[in-house]
Amino acid sequence: MSLNNDVVDYGPGIRASLPARISRRLAQAEMALGAALVAVIALSLLAGSVSRTLGRPLIWTDELAVHLMVWVAFLGGSLGIATRGHMAIALLPERLGLRGRAWLLLLTDLLVMAFVLVMAWLVWRWFDLPGLLRAGSGAGLASDTFNFIYTDPTLTLGVPKVWFWLIVPVTCVTGGIHALAAIAADLAELGRQQ
């Protein structure tokens, strides 16, 4: 998939705004990271399969693959915002004129931004950075609030799960940038139609 053509189209002769250029570069980086992670997942599963065949199973390979699949899913969600590639029912836009479609697209992108902002608020509460600073450590936070985000280890890898959960706040930031770029494009389109 080439992101040069799939990221929101701003029309012929229209210079992309700063948010649009940042969104496009970010989407390219997300695509590259996603491709690399898919390769690591495939290699991890292959290594696990071969090691089981040889009678010396690597028990951590499946868990690594599962955690990396979650990363790929979140990257894909962010890319879906960048490309406006999420599922949609196109009955209403087909019935509207150009101006109506532009307003509907703006409303849709504002709702996507609202979702990203709510998600960011929930992630902020979940990661509880002020609580972590007050407690002084992940163990202190767990003791004070029963929030084990910084201390809960993976089963076979033995690393804190927070390293894998970091994709959630990253997606809030990247999805927000993509949504902002889409809103800027919608407003520019509405301005051209007047």
What key phrases describe this protein's structure?
75% helix, globular
Annotate the secondary structure layout.
Elements: H1 3-6, H2 18-53, H3 60-83, H4 91-95, H5 98-127, H6 129-135, H7 138-145, H8 162-165, H9 167-193
GO biological process, one term: C4-dicarboxylate transport
Pfam families: DctQ
Membrane topology: Multi-pass membrane protein
How would you characterize this protein structure?
The protein is mostly helical and 194 residues long. It contains nine helices and no strands. The longest helix has 36 residues, at 18-53. The protein is globular. The model has no long low-confidence stretch (mean pLDDT 89).
The helix/strand order is HHHHHHHHH
Count of extended strands: 0
Share of residues in strands: under 5%
Shape: globular
Please count the helical segments: 9
The tally of domains stands at 1
Task: Output the radius of gyration.
Answer: 21 Å
Helix content: over 70%
Mean pLDDT across all residues, rounded?
A: 89
Supply the helix-strand structural class: mainly alpha
Oligomer: single chain
Instruction: Please report the distance between the alpha carbons of the first and last residues.
Output: 34 Å
